[in-house]
Amino acid sequence: MRKLIACVASISALCGSAAAATLSNADRLALQTAMVQHIDRQTVDGLYPWFDVKSGGIDRYSPAKSHPMIIRAGDTFVLCTDFKDKDGAATNVDFYMMRKGVSFEVIRTEIANRAPLETLMNAGKAQPAD
Which residues of 88-116 are buried (b: 16+ CB within 10 A; e: fewer)? Predict the structure, then answer.
C-alpha cells in the first residue's frame, strides 16, 4: 500500500510540474535564438563586457557554452550559459527573459551570481520548463 501511495504521489508531482511548466519546441528555439542574438549584440571584439559594480571596473568574458535547461518563473524564463573569464575559468551566466511579440527579450543578466535563481527555485517560484 505504501508503494502505491508513493507511486501515485510521484506521478501527481510530475504531472503537476509538467503541466505548469510546458514549453513548446518553437518557444525553446525562440528563447535560445534571442539569447544568442543578445550575446552577439553585446560583445565587443568577441568579448562580453560587464561592469563590476563592486570594483568599478569592466570585466570581459568570452562566451563558451550554453546549457539546454530552461527555468521558468511565471512569465519569465532563465537560460544559463558559461562564459570564460580572463583567466579561462568557467563563469555561470543567467539570462532572464520575457516574451516580446513572437520572440523573447533579455530583461536581466546575472554573471557569477547564481543566488537570485537559487532563491527563486528554493521558494518554489521557479522550476525547470521541461
Answer: eeebebbbbbeeeeeebebeebbbbeeee
pTM over 0.90: no
CATH code of the domain containing 118: 3.10.450.630
Q: Is residue 48 part of a domain?
A: yes
Written as tens digits, the pLDDT of the chain (130 aa) is 333 233 323 323 333 333 344 899 999 999 999 999 999 999 999 999 999 999 999 999 999 999 999 999 999 999 999 999 999 999 999 999 999 998 999 999 999 999 999 999 999 999 999 7
Work out how many domains the chain is built from and give that number.
1
18, part of any domain: no
Q: Which domain holds residue 106?
A: 23-128
Determine, yes or no, domain membership for 29: yes
